[in-house]
């Protein structure tokens, strides 16, 4: 779970990179932190930020996301719909977290557990390749959709 102090850590990283924390950039970061489990596209994020910062432009949100991606504060993630979404990196593990993607309702759930330690070791041993990071998305049917389907079958 994301902690409120992460906003301060993100702001600190921006300052260390020599970037000013404009009201628009702050509003974008605050919205990302607040909605960190939503996996928003740039356009979706823009709509949410605009509620708090009506003067912000879409180009500003895009530029901010690019800066945050360069600083490894966010990751770009693409699911089955092909839309680039932005996922806030958390400090809870050495790797990017994994996702469960429901193919019926589109819900995305995060797994903050590294499930591929053994696979990484095998890749290193067999291929001599040292894995720095990995992304894993499980496609399937979420519990809510399974329950709904089960009720319709009865």
UniProtKB/TrEMBL annotation:
Question: Where is Zn(2+) annotated to bind?
Answer: 102, 105, 142, 145
Provide the cofactor list for this protein.
Answer: Zn(2+); Mn(2+); Fe(2+)
Give the record's cofactor note, including how many are bound: Binds 1 zinc ion per subunit.
* Pfam families linked to this entry: FUR (PF01475)
Q: Name one GO molecular function term.
A: zinc ion binding
Q: Does the keyword Transport apply?
A: no
Q: In the record, which residues are listed under signal peptide? A: none
Classification via SUPFAM superfamilies: Winged helix' DNA-binding domain
Detail which positions bind Fe cation.
Answer: 134
Recorded hits in InterPro entries, A to Z, give: FUR (IPR002481), Fur_C (IPR043135), WH-like_DNA-bd_sf (IPR036388), WH_DNA-bd_sf (IPR036390)
Q: Which UniProt keywords apply?
A: DNA-binding, Iron, Metal-binding, Repressor, Transcription, Transcription regulation, Zinc
Gene Ontology process terms (BP):
negative regulation of DNA-templated transcription; regulation of secondary metabolite biosynthetic process
The entry sums up its family as follows:
Belongs to the Fur family.
Q: What is this protein called?
A: Transcriptional repressor
């Amino acid at each position: 779970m994301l902690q409120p102090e992460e906003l301060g850590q993100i702001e600190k990283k921006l300052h260390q990179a020599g970037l000013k924390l404009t009201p628009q950039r702050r509003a974008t970061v605050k919205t990302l932190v607040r909605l960190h489990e939503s996996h928003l596209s740039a356009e979706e994020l823009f709509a949410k930020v605009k509620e708090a910062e009506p003067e912000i432009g879409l180009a500003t949100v895009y530029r901010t996301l690019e800066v945050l991606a360069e600083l490894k504060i966010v990751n770009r993630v693409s699911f089955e719909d092909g839309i680039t979404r932005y996922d806030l990196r958390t400090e809870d593990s050495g790797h990017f977290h994994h996702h469960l993607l429901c193919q019926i309702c589109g819900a995305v759930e995060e797994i903050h557990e590294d499930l591929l330690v053994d696979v990484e070791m095998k890749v290193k041993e067999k291929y001599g390749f040292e894995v720095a990071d990995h992304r894993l998305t499980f496609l399937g049917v979420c519990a809510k959709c399974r329950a709904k389907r089960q009720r319709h079958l009865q």
